[in-house]
Amino acid sequence: MLPFFRSGSVVRLRPLAEGDLVAGRVVLGQTGSGQFVIHRILHLAGSRVVLLGDGNTIGTETVLRERIYGIVDCGPLHLVLARVWTWLRPVRKYPLWILRRFCR
């Protein structure tokens, strides 16, 4: 989840509340293969939630709504910066390459 969370970061989860499942929020979900992931909601598709990690340039995970177990407690500044990061998706492989060199 670079650049917002480094590997090993501690995050604070809270239970889902009404209206929490919206694009841009970071959630803990369980994939169909049983893996737990902390990723950002890309969009909602009926009973499924499509997730994308901030450090991923391609590939998404689709999770059933009932397999979303919590939401990462993020502040308003984080949400604004994350929206910009989402807009940069087509070119974010370049800043990610630099970040991965320095954030080991």
What does this structure look like?
There is one protein chain. A six-stranded antiparallel β-sheet has the order 1-6-2-3-4-5, with no helix packed on it. The chain has 104 residues and is an alpha+beta fold. Strand 2 (26-30) and strand 3 (36-45) form a beta hairpin. The longest helix is centred in the last third of the chain and has 12 residues, at 76-87. It has helices at residues 76-87, 93-102, and strands at 13-14, 26-30, 36-45, 48-52, 61-64, 68-72.
* Strands ordered across the widest β-sheet: 1-6-2-3-4-5
Report the structural category: alpha+beta
The profile of the biggest β sheet is: 6 strands, antiparallel
Report the order of strands and helices: EEEEEEHH
Overall number of strands: 6
Oligomer: single chain
Overall pLDDT metric? 82
What's the gyration radius in Å? 13 Å
| Low-pLDDT runs | none
Query: Roughly how many Å apart are the termini?
Result: 13 Å
Task: Note the overall shape.
Answer: globular
Task: Please work out how many helical segments DSSP would assign.
Answer: 2
Percent in helix = 10-25%
Strand percentage, roughly? 25-35%
